[in-house]
Amino acid sequence: MLPTLTVCLACLVTAAAVGLASYSGSGYAREALDAVERDIADKLRRLRAPTRNLRPLLIAWLIVLAGALAGFWIVLDSPVFGVLTAVLLSCGPWYLLRRMAQRHRQRIEDQLADAMVMLSNAVRAGLSLAQSLEILAAQCPRPINAEFHQIVAEYKLGKPLDRTLREAKDRLRSENFALFAAALLASHESGGRLNETVERIAQSVIELQRLERKVQTETAQARKSAVYMALAPLIILVLYYFIEPDNTAKLFTTFIGQIFLTVALVLNIIAYLWARVILNPDI
Fold first, then answer.
1. Cβ partners under 8 Å of residue 10, min gap 6
2. Is residue 74 a contact partner of residue 7, using CB atoms and an 8 Å limit?
């Protein structure tokens, strides 16, 4: 009876503290939630994913994080693992979404040079800029054709072409597309030989992509080694469990053992992310 009463009192005190902290810092919490929502919505728009009902989903996710923290802390009597799980559940999806947005942008970068060559040929054939963009929207592969589809659709609905190009540039955040859009805007506003300008930009983009692929090839083995090094501690932990099961179990059942495991996991993740940054230089 006494342990049950103690748990109930602890839950009430924790709930009161959380409620008081939420009430006193509601303004800061709302600003933080708005910032997170804007960041996630920006990445979803770059992925051309829907952003409706994002705020309720974020609130539901916060409730899940609080439930995971409370479950580890109260039910399993492991506050360290509870905090660690809450941190991983909050940072993991954001990191995956960020990686997906980066890969989406990289795919567009890879397809941009061919799209510029196609536009240059269309302009040389005597088509207008708007007609050339329609050809790109119809013939380019995904995902870059979706961007040209949106540009053409907005232009047909009456939005100025320069505005649609600027919005696409802000949405993609690609340096190569920014050069491409700048050439289109300059030709649209002041004229000039658009095909020659676009061809020169396309050649520069192709050369840059060649250098990036060379770097990726040279560092492929090192990136695999980083993955193996990140998995090595887990493999060693499993082996130690079969060799010394009692001592290994203390890492999970004692407070100091949980601290050691948490620090090791955090340092391992930092080392892996640091290796990725080193092995993916910005050319």
1. 74
2. yes
Summarize pLDDT for 113-124 with one digit per residue, the tens: 888 888 888 888
- Cβ atoms of 152 and 231 within 8 Å: the answer is no
- DSSP codes joined into one string, 192-245: --HHHHHHHHHHHHHHHHHHHHHHHHHTHHHHHHHHHHHHHHHHHHHHHHHHSH
- The residue with tokens 């050809």 is 135
Give dist(CA 152, CA 131) in Å, integer: 9
Q: What are the backbone dihedrals phi and psi of residue 173, each rounded to the nearest 5 degrees, phi first?
A: 55, 50
The residue type of 41 is A
pTM listed for this prediction: 0.72
User: What value, to the nearest 5°, has the Cα angle with vertex 153 and ends 150 and 154?
Assistant: 85
Q: How many helices and strands, by DSSP H and E, does the chain display? A: 12, 0
* Sequence-distant contacts of 124-132: CB under 8 A, at least 24 apart: 124/195, 129/161, 129/184, 129/187, 129/188, 129/194, 130/155, 130/161
Give the C-alpha separation, 53 to 182, whole Å: 35
| Residue whose C-alpha is closest to residue 97's, from 39, 50, 147 | 39
Q: Is 211 exposed, middle or buried (0-12, 13-18, 19+ CB in 10 A)?
A: exposed
Query: Can you read off the two tokens belonging to residue 150?
Result: 């949106």
Report how far apart, in Å, the C-alpha atoms of 210 and of each of 140, 203, 283 are: 21, 11, 11
The DSSP code for 280 is S
Tens of pLDDT along 193-250? 777 778 888 888 888 878 888 888 888 888 888 888 888 888 988 898 888 888 888 8
**Nearest residue to 37 via CA among 22, 18, 59:** 59
